[in-house]
Backbone:
């Protein structure tokens, strides 16, 4: 599902206009992003848990040339 499809589905389900639904989605995603940047976790019951994690870097190989 793309963002456009999600906005359309939200508008149909809520009775909002597509513009209002897009603003609501953008605001929701911005709030989630801010919480994650601050190091918090976001738990949405029945949907999922979002959190930031750090990973060590790794070396990869170019499959075409074989160089690291």
Residues:
């Amino acid at each position: 599902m793309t963002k456009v499809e999600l906005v359309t589905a939200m508008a149909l389900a809520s009775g909002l206009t597509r513009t209002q639904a897009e603003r609501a989605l953008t605001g929701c995603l911005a709030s989630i992003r801010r919480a994650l940047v601050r190091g918090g976790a976001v738990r949405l019951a029945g949907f999922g848990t979002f959190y930031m994690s750090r990973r060590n870097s790794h070396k990869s190989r170019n499959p075409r040339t074989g160089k690291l």
User: Anything to note?
Assistant: The first strand starts at residue 42 and ends at 44. Helices lie at 3-14, 18-37. The chain is about 45% helix and 10% strand. The first helix runs from residue 3 to 14.
